Fold these 2 entries.
Entry 1:
Amino acid sequence: MSTLLQVVEACGIIAFACSGFVEARRKDMDLVGVFIVAFVTAFGGGTLRDMLLDRRPLFWVEHQEYAILVFVLALLAGPFLPHLRSAVAEKTIVVADALGLGLFSAVGTSLALEAQMPVFICVMMGVTTGIFGGVLRDVLCNEIPMVFRREQLYATCSLLGCAVYMVLEWLDMTSAVALISSILVTSVLRLLAVKMNWRLPG
Amino acid sequence: MSTLLQVVEACGIIAFACSGFVEARRKDMDLVGVFIVAFVTAFGGGTLRDMLLDRRPLFWVEHQEYAILVFVLALLAGPFLPHLRSAVAEKTIVVADALGLGLFSAVGTSLALEAQMPVFICVMMGVTTGIFGGVLRDVLCNEIPMVFRREQLYATCSLLGCAVYMVLEWLDMTSAVALISSILVTSVLRLLAVKMNWRLPG
Amino acid sequence: MSTLLQVVEACGIIAFACSGFVEARRKDMDLVGVFIVAFVTAFGGGTLRDMLLDRRPLFWVEHQEYAILVFVLALLAGPFLPHLRSAVAEKTIVVADALGLGLFSAVGTSLALEAQMPVFICVMMGVTTGIFGGVLRDVLCNEIPMVFRREQLYATCSLLGCAVYMVLEWLDMTSAVALISSILVTSVLRLLAVKMNWRLPG
């Protein structure tokens, strides 16, 4: 179970980093830009949450292997990224990104609950963990954040998944049940939103 | 007196959130974008100050009712905002925004003083509390921050109000006198600047 | 030796602030904008590092004289900046900026090492200290950060200087030797990169 979560986590980090690579290359950045944008996309949400909650050490400080992984991927992104632009690769990234969004959101909510935050703040911390990496990526790339535009539902899926987490905790379910259910709700909703082209009104 | 300040505070938060709504709608954002931009406008300055001073818990974490208020307002902003575009509504928002700027700046200065910061830093923390919500709003909306452009005086009013706070404290006035005077100086200067079209040189 | 470092530090802060002045004036900002952009350029990198490492008090809070210096320079920048645009002034700023980059990077690495961070994180903290002031300057000015674009090597010089610091520490050299060598490596590489027009691939 713990191993499974670690696999999901690694998939999510790689998927988030990939969205950073794609965006940074589109802006014609050099290796430094590609690495920093990918790093911020992958770890920005969790870092902001930890700074707001005053939690230390930060995730990527404790696990420098993840930071090194993103660095190595950035080195490889230059020569290999153009070949990844196939339909299969893009679908894989969408699925991994949805899993990452689900995991990051659920973990963010659970850490805020652990820090005894009030209910609404726990949900906000979950959503922040899930989406703010992408927000910071778009700010660094000088774009209006994708999740604020009327694209297919993204933050809303995270919000509902975090709410499910809080309801299950309130019903005294075990943390494992709440975590898995929350990840599934967020990820499945996100994949449905992409498939069915669901959008929010203005 | 304390009730009066709470009323001013609520007015300020609503006015700041409204400027977030207007900006987010101008960029054609969806509900998620509208909420986050409004939230960041209302609480960004105080949050940055608290992170710089290492104060916890954050204001909106302790008072989740304000975060919920902004969320509810964001839900209502979609259908109701277009009707708010009358001259009366715009004037009301300018006044409430000036009051909010005055209160946030004065409170920021007083909290920095409490944390025993040096004089110049206390003033900077007051100005940061007052204006950085708007700076972050404009960064998220992909604009050069309004307060940096040659618009009618805004940050300068906050700076003078914070300086008045420090002078009155140094003269051993009570905190209540310093707070009220500082709020009045900032707010009145801001309203005069709008009325008389005062601008800074480059 | 300690006096020498303080001189280098002051040079670096002034050079970083100058790059903020130039950018803010190019965007036609008023005095408030010029001051805040210069301040963020000069102290943003170190502040971000301290917030990530949870170090307090912040450098510019402890040394408010530097914040006041930037404020006074911002007041002078309006009338005097246009006269500074000579070739001599521009070369002086490039040299001072290279020294500042070297010093800030080396100090950032050494503080992270003191906080017992892992190796890769120490290097990242050094680079963050050196370059993030400029990144935040460009974000506030609504530009894609200069260090992410394919300009002459900048972050890469800082990265190599920080790596040299770590190697010398690992070889049990004194901190002074590591610091001076690291500053020299970064600064000389940066000046060579400008001279020889070295750039990174995409």
Note: Residues 2-196 of chain C form one domain.
Entry 2:
Amino acid sequence: MATSEEGLIELCHGNGGWLMHELIEDIIRPALANPMLDTQLDAAKLPALEGLPVITTDGFTVQPLEFPGGDIGSLAVHGTINDLAVSGAVPLYLTLNLFIEEGFEISRLARLIKSLGQAADSTGVVVVAGDTKVLPRGQCGGIYLATTGIGTLAPGTNLGMGFVQPGDKVLVSGPIGDHGTAVMLAREQFGLSGTLLSDSASVLPLTLALQGLDGIRFMRDPTRGGLATVAYELCRATGLGINLWQEAIPVSDQVRGVCDLLGYDPYYLACEGRVMAIVSMSDAPSALKRWQALPAGSHAAIVGEIQSNHSRVVLTTDYGGERILEELEDDPLPRIC
Amino acid sequence: MATSEEGLIELCHGNGGWLMHELIEDIIRPALANPMLDTQLDAAKLPALEGLPVITTDGFTVQPLEFPGGDIGSLAVHGTINDLAVSGAVPLYLTLNLFIEEGFEISRLARLIKSLGQAADSTGVVVVAGDTKVLPRGQCGGIYLATTGIGTLAPGTNLGMGFVQPGDKVLVSGPIGDHGTAVMLAREQFGLSGTLLSDSASVLPLTLALQGLDGIRFMRDPTRGGLATVAYELCRATGLGINLWQEAIPVSDQVRGVCDLLGYDPYYLACEGRVMAIVSMSDAPSALKRWQALPAGSHAAIVGEIQSNHSRVVLTTDYGGERILEELEDDPLPRIC
């Protein structure tokens, strides 16, 4: 038995023997090719880091594994480097854990890892270490990934919820909910389909664009639970409230249409390539300008404001009314990342 | 519905809403308590690293989740820091990914995370970032972990398979196969039981003990596939052969008994707290002495030698014969880590 792209993953591909070796050398290593990935070593030695290290980790269990605009491979890269980017860091290295189900098509694995490698390449990060486990049929939904990212903080960067003040503005870098909606449509469980692409992408150009702007308080990529959930975390951490202006929040027609049909709120749907930033009142216009000058920020908008007279997330509706966005208990769209 | 230790994990515990927040704050955070784990941040900011960074990552899918001498929580810590330690590094930080199956007992999760936290504490590493995903019932065997470890290389450390030379000695720090055998006995699938404990432990005291010894070429913790598999990786990388001396290899009576009964070779069984080291002929005796002076190394032994006249792993048996240890294709004991 040899590992070939036509075959299926078997339990023995995860047991440390030569079949695992072959899988790693034939399928995984070429897709992640870089001089720092030494599959003979238990641990990767990295050059000295210039700047303070920043580290983050994420698990990925999205269903379906491939969706319009991305797949679990590219999503894992984007999701991880975005967590570094919104912390004010420049991502440098990734590690990769694979949990693969017995019976998974090797050709599909190769495709997903290739996509992961391309996403890493195009954002200038390298995969330096990895681990593969194979689970018995029925004990793993195809493939799960875990990626850990390491970067370094740009000098002088100091972002955090603790810096947020009443009167600060809320910015988003583009239309919200595209990823959640695209993945949901790809499941075809509601009999809906569309041409919407996930927004899965690196947000590094967006976060770098705001570098050096004094009034940047905090950035976050609104993934699981969407914009409203990040807003709630902010309220909880600061004791402040957030007003969001429905009219100002960019939502694509397709996302709006799906939400209207199914009764979803786009504010709770995941993005995987957007940034929410809290910026001082005085610097908000120049932050917006910097974003709008980028292709990824052409639909950026100032969508709300930090309030001291309440501690909820309140939506000012298009009709001028106010509606409290309740904190999410259970996501209507599980497994979107 | 509130998160309590009596309850079961539900899908909503992984969806980014307040139930996930509660799970993290009530169950996970206290067990990993350290000032650097800030659950409000997407990424952890670390102090500047003194020395070159070393990074490794591992997935853990062991069955059963709890076994004599350890559990998946402590095993994840040991497995990850050991990969750093055998690279000549001092482990500093861990990140943690949880993949939990819907219906998993929260009290059990709390117990496993507590064990993980204690193992980290006792080896001086801190968990600085994490991520939790919940999978639908039947799509995850209880719980899978992925841990990434960061450490720094001790100055002057230069280990690697490339340094190995004919005539070098092979050392092991203690009896082999305890972990694999203990986990197998815990499954009770063969109707066997015993008092054997897994050797799951940090090997850092062992690797630090060899620091500064010129003749250290390479170290590895023989986990999946055991001593024979590490030996084969070494042969493949160097083109050299390895002779192992059956008589010299420490194997506990219980492991030997189980192997005799079931027809296993202990050389393929996993350890999770042992080191295999390749040391120059002249420094091998002092390396052995350093190990034997430690509680974890009291059964350390010189068990073989690097050869240039073949490129296989050859066992000199107790009866003076020679037997090629074939390279493992499929592990008789899957999911031991």
Note: Residues 11-153 of chain A form a domain with the 60s Ribosomal Protein L30; Chain: A; fold (CATH 3.30.1330.10).
